[in-house]
Design goal:
Blueprint lengths: L1 H11 L14 E7 L3 H12 L4 E4 L11 E4 L2 E4 L4 E2 L6 H8 L5 E2 L4 E5 L7 H15 L9 H16 L7 H19 L22 E2 L7 H6 L12 E4 L4 E5 L8 E5 L4 E9 L3 H11 E2 L4 H9 L1 E2 L2 E7 L11 E5 L2 H6 L11 E3 L7 E7 H9 L2 H16 L10 E4 L13 E2 L10 H6 L2 E2 L5 E5 L12 H15 L6
Helix pairs in contact: 2-14, 4-5
This protein binds flavin-adenine dinucleotide and 2-acetamido-2-deoxy-beta-D-glucopyranose (4 copies).
One 2-acetamido-2-deoxy-beta-D-glucopyranose (NAG) binds next to loops.
Length: about 475
Amino acid sequence: MALWRCILAAVFLVGVTTVNSSPTMSSYDTIVVGMGAAGTTAASILAKAGKRVLGLEAQNRVGGRINTVPFGDGVVELGAEWMHGTKPNTVYDLAVQNNVTVLPQDISMEVYMSDGSLANKELVNELTEFCLQVVDEPPPTPQPLGQYITKRLMDYIKDKHPTLLKDQGFINEFLAFMDLMIDNYEATDTWNDITTESKYRVLDGHQHMSWNKNGYKTLFEILLNTYKNGPGLPTLTIKLNTEVSQIVWPQDPSQKVIVKSKDGAEYSADNVIVTVSVGVLKERHSAIFSPPLPQKKADAISHLTMGLLGKIILLFPAQWWPKEKLFYGFMWKPEDRANVTDETWSLRLTAASNPMGCKHALTMWTSGEVGRLVETLPDDVVKRKAMELLRRFMGANVTIPEPISMLRSSWYTNPYTRGSYTYDNLSSPSHPTAREDLAAPLSDSSGRPRVLFAGEATETNHFSTVHGAVGSGEREAARLLPSSKI
Ligand SMILES: Cc1cc2nc3c(=O)[nH]c(=O)nc-3n(C[C@H](O)[C@H](O)[C@H](O)COP(=O)(O)OP(=O)(O)OC[C@H]3O[C@@H](n4cnc5c(N)ncnc54)[C@H](O)[C@@H]3O)c2cc1C
Ligand SMILES: *[C@@H]1O[C@H](CO)[C@@H](O)[C@H](O)[C@H]1NC(C)=O
Ligand SMILES: *[C@@H]1O[C@H](CO)[C@@H](O)[C@H](O)[C@H]1NC(C)=O
Ligand SMILES: *[C@@H]1O[C@H](CO)[C@@H](O)[C@H](O)[C@H]1NC(C)=O
Ligand SMILES: *[C@@H]1O[C@H](CO)[C@@H](O)[C@H](O)[C@H]1NC(C)=O
């Protein structure tokens, strides 16, 4: 085996100095595993500082949980869609510095009822605002978020709208609607899986800034210096379709880190930055790391929770919905809900929204267990049910045409993500350092960091976001190169 390789190499590779497999294994300063937001940020910073960087990406594209896809007259996002806040936000700053137009999306919501009528707008908006404000006033001891909001809301209704107490059916359906909206942001099954004691911190500024027709993919063009035909980064090599299967990390300071890919190639470097999702780490860390991860790191991975947010995106021949809103929410009436006896997953399609990058598209949202189920259903079933829902809720005064085409996300089925992003569940307050423990590097016997960890989940206050992922890439690049900047 080794012998025929040498012979072939001698015959065909005369004059070629680098061969990407042993024995003449090419060596890098840093190998980055995964070219999502975190990995691409770290690779960009290190390469701009002149480091020789190799980015290994299992999928056939960079971007990871950001995936901009051409659709209709523009683009849609199967993954991240908005910048949640602008101050301070490296992602927003990069867009502005490069003169990319990013636009705030109107945050108003229109809520439709299951009998085709419009919900009482003032009341629903007032109650929604109250619930969102309560999230920022957590109780002294952690509780399930849903229970806490429900209790606070009931007190508020008793005080402000006592007559509403006679309509328990409406109150229940409003609570179910709030539960779904919050699940939609947290990627959860129920708001009672979420702890009130989350360490997530909201950035200042507009919470729904869109890359519109440019698409979130522009972030990667900027980071890789290919935006507007930029020349790229000379010391960065990216290999797509290259799944990392093993990372061998040394105790001996004189040895390199060896990274093996599924196709049999081996690469070596002084250090490696691992950015794969917690979903992937849960499934594969014991196969990937040699020697195995220390117990503290393995525990952190098992304590963190990966949620699922899903999108069903429909393209129509023309816009038939009324005005540009952020969300067109669906609120059931108790008697209509009782009548839904099969395909009950459709009760958890939250809302529709018009993506800014594509005029004639509507996105419908799913989360948690139902989101995972929907990924396994055939296209025709999902499309039929989505259309049934749109016509039931939004079709009272308009004939809704059949969609021209449909795109769906599959972040749970995808073996390279296994979910959308992490959230803090009811057990999180008992494991308060899980994210820091995941972020801690593995060092050799001289104390030098050799395996570093970045990614959304490693950010204590900004997990679940692109700015969190980018921040984690900056953090780990700085660990290797203290004076570096993006
Ligand atoms: C549907 C959805 C909507 C979202 N909406 C928003 C939003 O509006 N705003 C926001 O801020 N955030 C949003 N997010 C979250 C945001 O997308 C993520 O937090 C962020 O993109 C994560 O980046 P990352 O670099 O940590 O991980 P990833 O993007 O997952 O990058 C890791 C990379 O590693 C690769 N990989 C995995 N295994 C291997 C392997 N064995 N070998 C080599 N490579 C491997 C993966 O293919 C991937 O490219 C959303 C996410 C989803 C899924
Ligand atoms: C952005 O626009 C300003 C003003 O027009 C210009 O000075 C600057 O060079 C532009 N920057 C980039 C990166 O194109
Ligand atoms: C439909 O039109 C009627 C009459 O204009 C209006 O009262 C009602 O609110 C509309 N319903 C929806 C769902 O837009
Ligand atoms: C929280 O998530 C972790 C990791 O997925 C899981 O082990 C734990 O059981 C969850 N806790 C609760 C209360 O659901
Ligand atoms: C429930 O479904 C049945 C059968 O489809 C129908 O006859 C009935 O009118 C429905 N009830 C409501 C309240 O929609």
